[in-house]
Design goal:
Elements lengths: L21 H40 L8 H43 L2 H7 L4 H11 L9 H17 L11 H5 L10 H25 L4 H4 L2 H16 L1 E4 L7 E4 L15
Antiparallel strand pairs: 1-2
Helix pairs in contact: 1-2, 1-9, 2-3, 2-4, 2-5, 2-7, 4-5, 5-7, 7-9
């Protein structure tokens, strides 16, 4: 027997919203990156004198010294593992953030729009859902604002990643996307952190916009304050780390602020 739900969204809840689980993975992947950064900073401090000594030996003995870079690999192995782990968790964070954004918009539609409209919008792309649902509650013109650009960017990243494409190259051609003259190697942690922070800020931009325009307070109340406070706190802790001298190996990584305190302050949506 089909479960009955009210056609009028403002009469809900009940029923209550159940998340897909993507939000939890979004937050956990951020936490993993946050926890890896101090370990990476310690590792850089440990290997920097070892690498300097290594290069001195190569300068003295020439390229015959450690020709297969075995010694170099032993020195830098843990460092490389930290970088690879941060890259993996950053990618997971962006992917789960993009999925969580669609969940935010779906939840907004269910609790703000008539059931028939919400079900019809489900067939559209995520950016299209935002345009129409926003207009239907009295806020047209979102296409020229930051929340739309944020949804579009996250959706583009998710689609490229989900179809096995490199996210930093054009996706229209398989050859142009995947073929390179030289191997790219492990992605630097500074690049991974930039990807993560951009994605999290985009998520918060969309989240805060929907909370601003919702006509159903449940959209704001459902597990919302605790989750977004946690997201802002973790993001602040990640951004407390500063990369410098990234053109050198190893680069420098330092924590700039030991006392990070965050208030759940919505972003200014423009």
């Amino acid at each position: 027997m089909q479960e009955e739900h009210p056609d009028d969204p403002l009469k809900m809840p009940p029923p209550y919203w159940e998340d897909s689980g993507a939000l939890d993975q979004f937050i956990r992947s951020m936490e993993m990156v946050k926890d890896l950064l101090p370990a990476l900073a310690d590792e850089i401090n440990k290997i920097e004198p070892l690498i300097n000594d290594y290069h001195d030996r190569r300068d003295n003995f020439g390229e015959e010294y450690d020709p297969e870079y075995i010694e170099f690999g032993k020195i830098t192995g843990d460092f490389m593992n930290y970088e690879a782990s941060i890259a993996s968790y950053a990618d997971l964070c962006v992917l789960m953030g993009a999925i969580s954004v669609e969940t935010l918009i779906n939840k907004f539609c269910v609790y703000n729009l008539h059931r028939e409209i919400a079900e019809t919008l489900e067939r559209l792309t995520t950016p299209e859902k935002l345009i129409i649902s926003s207009a239907l509650v009295g806020h047209p013109g979102v296409k020229s604002r930051a929340p739309y650009e944020a949804v579009k960017a996250l959706t583009k990243w998710r689609n490229a990643f989900a179809h096995g494409h490199c996210i930093d190259r054009p996706t229209q051609s398989i050859h142009r996307n995947h073929l390179r003259k030289n191997t790219s190697g492990i992605r630097g942690a500074h690049f991974s952190i930039n990807i993560l922070t951009e994605a999290v800020n985009r998520y918060l931009c969309i989240h805060d916009y929907l909370n601003e325009i919702t006509q159903n307070p449940y959209v704001v109340d459902v597990d919302d304050f605790e989750d977004t406070t946690k997201i802002r706190q973790i993001l602040a802790e990640i951004q407390a780390y500063s990369f410098s001298d990234i053109e050198y190996f190893p680069y420098s990584l330092e924590r700039q602020n030991e006392n990070t305190e965050v208030v759940n302050q919505p972003l200014k949506v423009e």
